[in-house]
Amino acid sequence: MPALGQRSAARSHRRRRSPLRALLSAGVVSALIGGALVVGQTASAAEPDLARTGTTTASASQNDKDGNFPASNATDGNPATRWASGNGPDSDTTFTASLTSDLGQVGTLTGVSISWEAAYAVAYDVQVAQANPDDEASWSTAASETAGVGGTEQVTFATPTDARYVRLAMLKRAAATWDAPTLHYYGYSVFSFEVHGTVAVPTAGFDQTAVSVGAGADASVAVSLNSAAATDQTVHVTSADGTAVAGTDYTAVDQTVTIPAGQTSASFTVPTVSHGALAPQRTFTLKLADPSAGITVGSRDSAVVSIHPTGTLPNNGATTVIQNFEGGVPADYSTWASADSLKPVLTTTIDDTIVGAPADNHVLVATVTGTPTASDWFGFTNDTSPKDWSASDGFSFWFLGTGTGKTLEYELKSGGQIFDQNVVDDSTGWRQLTVLFDDLRLKGNHSDPARFVPSASAGFAVTLTGLGSGTYSFDDFATFERATTLEDFQGTVPIGSSTNPVGFFTWGSADNLATMDVTDQARGDVPDNKVLSGTYQIPSGGAYAGFSDNLSSSQDWSSYRGVRFWWYASQASNPASPTAGDDIKVEIKDGGPDGEHSELWAATFKDNWGSSSSRWKLVELPFSAFALGAYQPGDSATKNGTLDLTSAWGFAITFAPGKPTSTGWAVDDAQIYGTPAQAANLTVSSSKDVYIVNPGETASVGLTLTTSNGDALTSPVTVKYSPAAAPPPSALTSKTSPVR
Q: pLDDT averaged over the chain?
C-alpha cells in the first residue's frame, strides 16, 4: 500500500443610441416581493454519489496561468470542470498524486466512478478508511488498477466496504503520443470522482454550490440527498445579500424545501431582476439549516448565486463606412480559392431590406457555385496600404443570414499579421456583425499575446469556406466608435433632489446656488434637441454647488475608456486664449452602496468654446485622467483607492465659484466611450544570436526591445535572464564559450 505523505509535489508548467438607464419599475418591485418560489422534484438514482455532499481535497492542485483546477471540481457534479494535479517531470519517472473524499459519515460503499481528462492514470489504487485519515495505517486498498485506459472507468469493490474516507491514489501516468515516437508525460486530471453506496443517515446539500443565472430569469436551485430516505424529509433554506440586494435584485428566500420519500432531490426557483446590459454581476448566498430528524446537512450547505447582466447594449458611436457598394464592386477587391471552380464571383444588387437602408441601396453578393471538399478554401479580400483606424474602436459589416448553422469567418490585417473572428449563421435576415479591436486574436493561435494595431490596419478578408457553396450578401464594411449613452435628455429624464438623491439633482453649500431643468436648445444639426441646463452663482470663500447624476442601480463601466458629454461654454464670445476659462471639476462615483456614499474620483476640464464658431464643446475624459478626490463620503470599505469601475453610480459636476453674475450652463449626451487603452506588446531579443568570448572574459550582451505600437517606453522594463544549454560542439571551436 503506497504511503502518500512523502510524495513529491506536482510541478506546474505550461501544458502543451437610447440612454441606458435601468430604473426599477413598480411592476418589477411587485414581482420581487410577491413572486412565488416554485418547488419541483427529480427522481433518485439507484446508486447515489455520496461524494457530492462531502468534502474533497487533493495532494496538489494546479493554479497557474493555464487556469485554476481545485479538487472540488471533481465532485461538483459539473462534467465540464476538472481537477488537475499540475505537471510532473516530462519523463517516465515516478510521479504520484491523490484525491480524497470525506463523505462526512461512515457509509457502506460499493465502488467508485472516475471520469478522466486526457491526463489519466494507468495505475491507481482506490483506498478507504473509517477514521484518522492522517494516519497511513488507517487506510486499506479496496481496489487496484494496473492497466487503466482513461475515459470513464467504473470500479466495483469485491465486497461492500464500510468507510468515511475514500482516496484515489494515482501511481503511474499515461504517456501522451502526440509527438510519437517521442513520448511526453504531464500530470493527472479528473472531471469527476464519484463514490457509490449508501449511508444510514442521508446527508442534504446543494446540488451546485455555484449557480449562474441571467438577470431577469429565475435561478433554479436543487437540494439533494446522498441517499434516499423512507419518509418525506425537509430542510430550511434562506438567502443572504452579497452584492445583490433582496427586493431589488432578487426575491428573498426563507422557506422549507421538502424531498419526498424515495427521492433524492427537490428544486426551487428564485426570481431575479435585470438592470440592463451595463449592470455589474451581482451575487447572493443561499444557506441550508434545520434538517428534519431523518437527515443531516453536509458540507455543501451554502451556494453562491451569480446574477449576470442581460439586455442589449446599444452603440451610439459614430460609424465610418469603408465601402457601401453604391458604385459597384470596388476595384481593390479580389477573390481566392484552392480551386478556380470555387472562386467566388462578386457582384452587386439592390436590397433595401436592411434596417434604415434607402430604397435603392446596393449590397455586395458573393456567389460560390462549385462543390467544395473538406480540404478546400475560398473567400474574398480587400487588401490596402496601411490605414490608421485608431480613431475607431471596432469593425462591422452587415451579413444576410440564412440560418444554416454554418460558420462565417472574417479576418483583419495589421502589421503583417492576421486576426480572425468566427460567427455562426444561426438566424435569417440581415444582421450587423461587430467586433472590438481589443477582442481580435491572432489567427491560428488565440493565446498568442499579439494584438491588432488599429493604426497599422491593412485591410480585411471574408472566408466563406465554412458556409460552403451558395450565394451570400454583405453591405457597409465599416469601422465604428464605441459609445453608450447614459442620458440624452430627449425622453423622460429622472429628476431627483438632495432629499431623494436618485437621478439628476443640484446641491450646494446653501440653497439656490444652482438651478437645473430640461430645456430646448439647439446643438449643431441635432433637430428638436433637449439639454440639461440651468444657472449658477456661487460666492467666493468656500461656497460650492453643482449637480449629480446618481444611478438607481450601479453599472459596470470597466470595459470603457472614459466618460464624455457636450458642454455649453459660459462665455458669450470665444476667448482669445485656448487656455482661458474656469476649471470645472467632474467626479466619477465608484463603488459603495449608492451614489451618495461612493468613492469619488476627480478630473477637470476647461470651460471654453469647442471651436471658433461654437460654444458647444465635446468634453472627453479618459478614466486614466481621474485621481482620488480629497472629499470622500464613503466608509472605509468603500475607499479602496482603486478606480474599479465595476460598480459605477454616476457622476457629478462642480461649478466654478466667484462669478459676479448668474452664469448659464448646459450639458447634452452624457456617454461612456471607447475601450481601455491597450498596453503595447513588448518583444525582447538579443542583438546577436551568439556572443563568442575567450575563457575568463566577460561577455557584454546587447538587448533590443520592440513595442507593438512603436512608442518608446514610459517606464523601465526589467528582463530576467539565465544560462541556456550550449550549442553542439561542432558549432564552436574548442576555445570559445557561448553566452546567450
A: 88
